[in-house]
Every structure is written in structure tokens, then in C-alpha cells.
Amino acid sequence: MSNTTLPAALSVNLMARPLVERLLADADALGLQVRRDDTGVHIVDAGIEAPGSVAAGLRVGEICMGGLGHVNLRSGAGTEGWPTWLDVRSSQPVLACLGSQYAGWSLAATKEETGGKKFFSLGSGPARALAVKEKLFAELGYRDHAPCGVLVLEVDRAPPKIVIDKLLRDCGLAPEALTLILTPTTSLAGTTQVVARVLEVALHKAHELGFALADIVEGAGTAPLPSPSADGVEAMGRTNDAILYGGRVHLAVRGDDAAARELARALPSRNSRDHGRSFALIFKEVDYDFYKIDGALFAPAEVWVSNIDSGNTWHGGATEMGLLQRLWLQES
User: Fold this and answer.
1) What is the pLDDT of residue 5?
2) For a surface tag, which of 83, 84, 132, 155 has the fewest beta carbons within 10 Å of its beta carbon?
3) Whether the model pTM is above 0.90
């Protein structure tokens, strides 16, 4: 895998903090419910009992990127086969996407530990960089030391005390300094913040392909925003399909033309043997085991790679808007 050293002076938690404060201040307008648990941790419900909103999801997407990215809503009606799209961009794409946004921190508790149902979630967002529990951070050469942190969990219930205690311990935070944002994928906010990972999915795939992350200097992406589904598997399928079949990403890189050309060829999702079918169907066929799905599938549909050293640009892949329309659109 490729190594890179990220700017240590940039604190993703401190840069995200003003965004978190505005989210809390605007909770009512965004359809959120905010409370403190028994220890003093801020818990933000963005779609479990609270209604949430697309606007909240846009804000959570930017929080996930550690304040180093922008997430906007755009109308594509009549021109791109779907009425609403998300645009994402960052001038620090590696840190924003891999050092912060990526859902890579595995958090679990058994039934015995919770005193009820077992708990599992993948944590994403800036607080990952405080705990650095993933080997990815050693490759990135980055660790945050902020006195505050925020983590996003795609869950349909609040984490149990044993998980919150672990988060506080691993992040080295006082309870009042930690904010947890809960965004079930079945909600408006949850669907929005997952589709806002279109650029992050491209960065992760580039990393898996062994491309030198230090050579990726700018990134932008767009993907259609589907309606959420009340069924958890279907909701997850829609957010994945939005990126796999509707996602478009433009990366600006430095270095060798051959490496840039190969990245444009190898990155798109069409390189996967599983390409061409809905993610929900694929997931069911492998008995809901992510590790049985071809890893090459997790990528945007279409990619442009521009080498700013040579001025050359390469293109790979293509969107499958017809497939998305068949999956998402009902007869009127």
C-alpha cells in the first residue's frame, strides 16, 4: 500500500468543531434531537426518533470530512436522469476522506456486555483520528490531538454505555468534549451523508490499488440522491448503487502519466465481476457478508484523472442511470 504524510498542523476535529456547534444550534430547524447521556456526551439523533432532513445530512457530510470538504445539493432535473444530486469537493482529499470521513473504526459489544442486544457499528468522522485504531493511520502518518471530537454512527439505536466508555477512553476525551451523531441509513440525513461519500469511495479505491496518495491533490465528485427506504438492506443498497452506478469523480494528481492513466482505467466500478446488479441483491446473495463481495465493486461509476504536472486527463467507466431508474423509479 502507498504511504503519505498528511499535514499534522491540520486538526480535523478542531476544523469540524464550528460545524458541530452550528449543527447543535440549528437542531430544531434541521429536524434533530439533541441530548446529553448520563456521562455528559452529546448525542445527536438525526433520524431514529427525530425526523432528520436532507439539510442535516449535508451538514453531517461536511462534519465527517473534518471541515475540509464541501457538500452541496444540486438539481439535475431533465439533464442527468435524476432530479437531485450531491456535489462533493475537497482540496485536502486524502485527509478529508481517508483521515476523517471513511467508516473504518469497528465498534462492537456482545449481548452480555450491553445487557440486551448486541451492538455493532462502523465509526466515521474526525474522532477516528484521535483514537487511530486502524492501521490506515500509520500509512497516512497522521494523528489528531484535539481536546474535542465528533463521530458519526450509521445506527438505528444509541450506542450502549460500554461502547461510549470505549470511545472516551480511546479518544482521550472528557465526556462533554465528545459528540456522537446517529444517522440510520433509512433516514433522510443518513441516506444523504452516505451518498456524500462518493469522493471518499474513490480515494479508498485508489489506496487499495496502490496509487501514491501523496500525489492526489484535489478531488470532486457527484452522485444522485435517492429516496431513503424503510427497509434497512434496501436503504443501504440504494446509497451504494448511487455511487457504484451514478457516481462521478474527478481527481487531480501529480507525478507519472502512466500511473494516472492506469488509475483512470482501474478505478471505476465496472472492473468488478459483481457490476451491473443492485447492491441489495448482491448483498443478499452472499448471505449479508460484505467480505464475500468483490472489493473492486466499491468505486464510483465514472472517473476522470488529471495530471497537473503534464496537463493530461484520462477518463474511465460510465454511469448506469438506466439501471438506477429501474431500481428507484415507479410508474406514475
Assistant:
1) 65
2) 83
3) yes
